[in-house]
Structure formats: C-alpha cells, structure tokens
C-alpha cells in the first residue's frame, strides 16, 4: 500500500515529501508481519504517520494513552494489546533498512524517544515490534 499525505494529511501536497516504511511485527518470534510504504512530509511526527496508516489500512489501527508526560504511549496495535502479565509490549525501532526476521534489530535500534518526538526521515524504516521485554 502506498499513500501520499503531508503533515496536515493533505493528499495533494507534494512539498518535501519523503518515502518511509512502517512495519508491524507481532510476536517475539514474529508470527505476523505487516508493511506500509508511505510518502509523507519530512519531519512529520511518527504519531501522525500512525494516524495516516490506520486510515489507509485497518490492520494499523491503534490505541494510545495520552496521559504520559512523554506524550502518547502506544497500548495496542492491530488488535494486540500490551500485556504486563507476560511482559510483552509494543517497542519501536528506527532502522536504516527494512527489518528482516533472520537479522532482527537489537536494543541499539530502539527509539530513544516516544512516537510524538520521532520526526520521520528519508529512507528510514520504522518497526513496531510486539515482543517479550525484560526490564
């Protein structure tokens, strides 16, 4: 799926548009994978990218808690909710290439900031991975 949208969601705006990939992996062993290629305004917040993606493909629907001082905390994507009991959470990675199951990202690829503070950049790949997290 390819979409064109700017920071305000105007599908006709072409100024400073860039290509990014938004991928979902579900499961520590990656049982399911979903991908979207998006053309969107550079420096758009990743939260806005998530809003656009959910409009294009219901698989990318999500829920977020916006009561955090750090901005939106993603609690569910694709109908799969964070599970404190099993210590499985949605974690976001920023990658220089499309994610591969045979060479998964490591903690060094985790975003140091939340979705509101991530400004998308040209040819970057954004992975939300629902996986076991050891704290």
UniProtKB/TrEMBL annotation:
Range of residues in the leader sequence: none
Gene Ontology biological-process annotations: cobalamin transport
Organism: Oryctes borbonicus
Superkingdom: Eukaryota
Molecular-function GO terms, alphabetical: cobalamin binding
Classification via InterPro entries: Cobalamin_Transport (IPR051588), Transcobalamin-like_C (IPR027954)
Name the UniProt record assigns to this protein: Transcobalamin-like C-terminal domain-containing protein
One GO CC annotation: extracellular space
Domain Transcobalamin-like C-terminal: 49-94
Coiled coil region boundaries: none
């Amino acid at each position: 799926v390819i979409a064109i949208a700017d920071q305000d969601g105007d599908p006709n705006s072409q100024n400073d548009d860039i290509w990014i990939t938004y991928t979902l992996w579900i499961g520590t062993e990656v049982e399911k994978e979903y991908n979207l290629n998006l053309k969107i305004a550079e420096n758009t917040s990743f939260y806005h990218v998530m809003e656009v993606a959910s409009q294009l493909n219901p698989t990318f629907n999500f829920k977020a808690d916006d009561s955090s001082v750090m901005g939106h905390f993603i609690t569910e994507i694709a109908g799969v909710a964070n599970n404190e009991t099993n210590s499985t959470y949605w974690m976001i990675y920023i990658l220089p290439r499309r994610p591969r199951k045979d060479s998964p990202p490591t903690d060094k690829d985790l975003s140091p900031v939340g979705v509101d503070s991530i400004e998308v950049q040209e040819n970057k790949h954004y992975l939300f991975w629902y996986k076991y997290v050891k704290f």
